[in-house]
């Protein structure tokens, strides 16, 4: 059983490829929940949760799905500069979005719903930036 599972895991040195796959798969859960309910999305934008509409949640779901695909693809193509850079940009965009909702638009306050994506995007960006030369052999 374990051999069957490892056959589908990324083949790369280090743990960054596994992290990319984990974050990509986790984003699938977020995509599904955004298509099916407003409950968890309203935890992020908690200042005026009633302003989270079904349309906004579905748009957020598609954005999250796009990020999931890029990150999962990066897991299997971690040495490809273009793919690596695109994955980095998904984290930068996520960080920018959630930070602006917190600090500029004031639609979110520090909570688990907000801090989780901020921490994941920040730590992923730092990790990817620090390991750039290791994975991307220009």
From TrEMBL:
What InterPro entries does the record point to?
Erg28
Bilayer-crossing regions: 15-36, 57-76, 88-105, 112-129
Give the UniProt record's GO annotations in the biological process aspect. Answer: sterol biosynthetic process
Any GO MF annotation of the entry: protein-macromolecule adaptor activity
Q: Where in the cell is it found?
A: Endoplasmic reticulum membrane
Query: Is Heme set as a keyword in this record?
Result: no
Q: Name the UniProt key words of this record, in alphabetical order.
A: Endoplasmic reticulum, Lipid biosynthesis, Lipid metabolism, Membrane, Steroid biosynthesis, Steroid metabolism, Sterol biosynthesis, Sterol metabolism, Transmembrane, Transmembrane helix
| Keyword Endoplasmic reticulum in annotation | yes
The membrane topology noted for this protein in its Swiss-Prot or TrEMBL record is: Multi-pass membrane protein
GO CC terms of this entry: endoplasmic reticulum membrane
Q: Name one Pfam family in it.
A: Erg28
Top-level taxon of the source organism:
Eukaryota
Matching entries from PANTHER family are given as: ERGOSTEROL BIOSYNTHETIC PROTEIN 28 HOMOLOG, ERGOSTEROL BIOSYNTHETIC PROTEIN 28-RELATED
Q: Which family does it belong to?
A: Belongs to the ERG28 family.
State the name under which the record lists this protein: Ergosterol biosynthetic protein 28
